User: What shape does this take?
Amino acid sequence: MEQLVIHGGNPLRGRVKIGGAKNAVLPIIAAALLGSRGVTVLEDVPALEDVYTICAVLQSLGVRAEYEAAHHRLHIDATKIATVSAPYELVRKMRASFLIMGPLLAREGRAEISLPGGCAIGTRPIDLHLKGFEALGAEIEITQGAIHARAPHGLKGALIYFDFPSVGATENVMMAASCAEGQTILENPALEPEIVDLANFLNVMGAQIRGAGTNRIKIDGVPSLCAADYTIIPDRIEAGTYMVAAAMTRGDVFIENAISEHLKPVVAKLKEAGATIEEDIEGIRVRADGPMQAIDLTTLPYPGFPTDMQAQFMAMLAVAEGTSVVTETVFENRFMHVDELLRMGAKIRVDGRTATVEGGAALFGTAVRATDLRAGAAMVLAGLAADGETRVGYIHHIDRGYDDLVAKLVALGADIKRADAEWTEL
Assistant: This one.
């Protein structure tokens, strides 16, 4: 079992290039199932465990998916789909596997998928996905831990209102509606940049989608879609993680490829905490000459402060000056990193969905766990700022969302490495 070994105290300095967005590439890979003619070529595909998993899901369906990790390029030939049943052992690894249901329903008229897995940060129900499919005319049956969906009369356009702006449900229903008969209107959809990226890819394939990124998406169904070439947008959460790392280590880092428009709440909160931010067309520069200052933040659906940055900011606030209040409104179980930060000397009190962080603590290195993907990133950031040696276990969570994290941090001056070690429960 591998772990990360970190010796803290080094300010990060230099340039780091951000890769393609994990949360954009996974639905786009799923959408490639709709390409009944030609071969899809995706560029800037990050080398992540989740990418390998969803490629394996496609391959289990009889689709050819060949990834060139050295070039971050993925070829997908979905001209033939051999089966519409995705195996449990793959789907349980990653929640995003469920995104193949929309494309399969649209193209094959049926799909069978095990109930999805993923990080244990909350319930993240799939009922909004299923309600959307039913509104389009699909018949849903859940038996023995699997979801069976079929559309014997084809999918029909409908007006669909989302009770909550779910990213996954918006993506899944948008893909299904792309080939539904007639017009579909999605009201109160998710607004994330990854939604816009998926819509742009579908439109390149021949779909007719308007309004992605707004509160009302209009989709005029077409009979079929073709494969297409496409480049994935940069990962705003990876960018935000390096921005926080620069600020909390009192460093000076240029985050190449970061898109300011996608990071407004992160930029605003870092400025409020005392970091110096310079934005230009090539990326974002983050500098900090002294300790960060306490701030309050509340996670919200986009364009609010991203829940995927909450853990990283909490690590920074643990060493900031003053008392901060962090409120998590998106996922009910996203404070699992608090216990790990406490082990490092942080002073944090949790009351329901609110955490009070008494900053100024001197963090010290110890053995901690990556309890989920973003919590793992927070542990790495805490280790970079801590005295002594920090060992982060369960790093398979981190590998799900950060491409070449160790090499990128080493290039910025961090003392971090992967190492084989026996890991025992804390």
